[in-house]
Design brief:
The longest helix is centred in the last third of the chain and has 15 residues. Helix 1 packs across helix 4. The protein is globular, with a radius of gyration of 14 Å. The chain is an alpha/beta fold and about 160 residues long. It has a single domain, classed as Rossmann fold, CATH 3.40.50.360. Strand 5, helix 3 and strand 6 form a beta-alpha-beta unit. The protein is about 25% helix and about 25% strand.
Length: about 160
């Protein structure tokens, strides 16, 4: 596996838990909170795994707001990016994991190759900007309502993306 980093934003700890579990499944790749990340982290790794919880009306976790503009200043051509999102599909059924779409769009617009789309089967939500062509653009997790499925979803996703990392 090429040099990989997981950059995440977490307020309640769910996205942090997901990041640590993903790292473990990938053999212990580096994990960084977005509040401690820099533009050099976007350029210094071959693979980026980006994650965020979703807040309010579908926004990124707060710590991402200061970092997201860095994507406009970098060329991620030749980099591989996978994204994950954490949300509550029942209480926020109309904006489920929308933050994941923001990370996906930022990386895609910077020229990255995006991997890791997943099925929407097994979820119950009304709308999500993270769904394109009938699939999530990355891994969707719901620790509030389906915590018992998170480990298996992460295991399946990391198995799926590993060959491309």
């Amino acid at each position: 596996m090429k040099k990989t980093v997981i950059i995440y934003g977490s307020t309640t700890g769910n996205a942090a838990q997901a990041a640590e579990t993903i790292s473990a499944k990938l053999g212990g790749v580096e994990v960084k909170e977005v509040s401690a990340a820099s533009k050099d982290d976007l350029l210094g790794f071959d693979n980026l795994i980006l994650g965020s919880s979703t807040w309010g009306d579908g926004e990124l976790q707060d710590d991402w707001f200061g970092f997201l503009p860095a994507f406009k200043d970098v060329d991620l051509s030749g980099k591989t990016v996978a994204v994950f999102g954490v949300g509550d599909q029942f209480s926020y059924s109309d904006t489920y994991v929308n933050a994941m779409a923001e990370l996906y769009n930022a990386a895609k617009n910077a020229g990255a190759k995006i991997i890791g789309e997943t099925s929407t089967e097994g979820y119950s939500f009304n709308a999500s900007t993270a769904v394109q062509n009938g699939k999530f653009v990355g891994l969707a997790l719901d620790y509030d309502n389906q915590a018992e499925l998170s480990e298996d979803r992460i295991a399946a996703w990391t198995t799926q993306i590993t060959p491309e990392l």
